[in-house]
Amino acid sequence: MKNALITGASRGIGASISRLFAEAGYNVFINYRSSDDAAKNLSEKIKASGYKAQTIRADVSDPDEVKRMFSIIAESCGGIDILVNNAGIAQTKLFTDITDDDWNKILACDLSSVFYCCREALPYMIRQKYGRIINISSMWGQVGGSCEVHYSAAKAGVMGLTKALAAEEGLSGITVNCIAPGVIRTDMLSGYSEEDLKALAEETPVGKLGTPEDIARTALFLAKEDSSFITGQVIGVNGGFVM
After folding, report:
1. What are 121-179's pLDDT values in tens digits?
2. Any idea which architecture 3-237 has in CATH?
């Protein structure tokens, strides 16, 4: 049984990835920062269905917390085979209103966390000559989002990290890929009205918004052996919003 760590996994896309991976037979580690009840409820539901799951509380924007999390995993199962870097936050602000604190928080959570988690996961993956790293970015990292400059910059950084790391680790049997979601029905859309959501769906060529399950199914494919010849790629799961 392979071990998978999903960061930011208590709800939304991360929770869907956790459920799908558990159902596919992976031993799932559900990372979360503050949503204690949501993470524990998810874990209990997964285990009640006969699958394996464990919660780990850690702020992945803090390198010391990441080290502690990986130590817990190492004690439990030796290390992870699949890392899904999903944790992230967003903020909508005019560029001229972005403060140093805003910038640092977004970069720490959305980009530095990916670096910290990859750094801790790779030694184990390199030793066993096998690993799958799946980074969750955003279509705004591809094309840039107005009033989301810091978020777009961080998500573009995730794409650059993905490609460079894939080139470096290919001979070690490790693939590194990136998923760039489009407009997905998660808590990040909570500030939008139904009218706004309808307009976004109409802007999307397939005529609907995405779901967390759309991203989860892509992540599961990238974790499987079927994807062993795919690395360094940014896969847009956006309904054609960005082509």
Report:
1. 999 999 999 999 999 999 999 999 999 999 999 999 999 999 999 999 999 999 999 99
2. 3-Layer(aba) Sandwich (3.40)
Domain boundaries, the chain: 3-237
Q: What is the DSSP string of 23-39?
A: HTT-EEEEEESS-HHHH
Active site residues: 151
Comparing C-alpha atoms, which of 90, 122, 119, 93 is closest to residue 107?
90
Handedness of CA 38, 40, 46, 48 (dihedral sign): negative
- C-alpha closest to that of 184 among 211, 208, 206: 211
pTM above 0.90, yes or no: yes
Distance CA 12, CA 187 (A): 7
